Amino acid sequence: MTEAPDLAAPLTGWRLWLLDSDDEGPVLTSPVVASRWPARVATTASCRAGCERPPAWGCGCGLYATTHLDCLLATGVTAGVVLGCTALWGRVVEATEGWRAERGYPLVLFAPTVDHRNRSDVAQDVLWRTLVRRPGVAPQPDPPDDATLRALARRYAVPVHAVPTLRRAHAGPIDRLATVLRDEAAQGLAARRLGDGHARLRFDRAVEDLLDVLDRQRPPEGPPPILA
Ligand SMILES: [Zn+2]
Question: pLDDT, tens digit, for every residue of 5-64?
């Protein structure tokens, strides 16, 4: 097979962005090639190796997303990184754990923030900012505040939710609900765009269910383990 099929309906998958900013506010950036995902228009894949129409079957180009959220949690998802469920369409080829696609646009975003009510999160943040920082090691980016997340939601016209820092240990409990959300994001996309209230409700409920289980992953309140 040398040609990837053109798909009429979008696929959906999970991926990560870095949160950057420009003159117009917060912007999603691909973590691998440092290219920006524009707001309100589809991102189109490009190829540094010169493929005419990415993703090419024999190349690594294209917009990546995984079928399962737990693939992305191996190294943890911390403040400054944005996790999201994205639509993929145009030419799509299978990649390790997911797909590489020609076009993409995020459908819902989850941004880990430091929760200052949670002393374990605060302690981890202090650890990053003081003990871990040394020459040659990129500092932990500033966690996005509420205003930044609201600006991100407005700019891209998608829901953005603050979540706790996600660690590898969270993968099992959240993967099932993440898959439900991904499936609903794809199946109901056309209906939601046509204003189908039921489809929107199903999508919102899938997001709420995932947020509930993420919230339960917060460590119990207690003395900060590092500062104690
Ligand atoms: Zn290529």
Answer: 445 567 999 999 999 999 999 999 998 877 899 999 999 999 999 999 999 999 999 999
Q: Which residues, in sequence order, are bridge partners of residue 79?
A: none
Report if residue 22 sits inside a domain: yes
* Total domains in the fold of the chain: 1
What spacing in Å lies between the alpha carbon of 7 and ligand 1's midpoint?
19
Q: How far is CA 129 from CA 13, 125, 163, 165, in A?
A: 32, 6, 20, 15
Given a contact cutoff of 8 angstroms between Cβ atoms, the answer to whether 186 and 11 are in contact is yes
Asked if residue 1 is part of any domain, the answer here is: no
pLDDT digits over 131-142, tens only?
554 455 455 567
Of the candidates 129, 228, 118, the one whose C-alpha atom is nearest the C-alpha of residue 164 is 118
For residue 139, how far is its CA from the centre of ligand 1 (angstroms)? 32
- Residue 75: strand, helix, or coil: coil
Domain with 47, as residue range(s), is 6-215
CA of 69 to the centre of ligand 1 (A): 25
- Name the pTM for this structure: 0.83
Among the listed ranges 6-20, 70-84, 112-126, 163-177, which one has the minimum average pLDDT value?
112-126
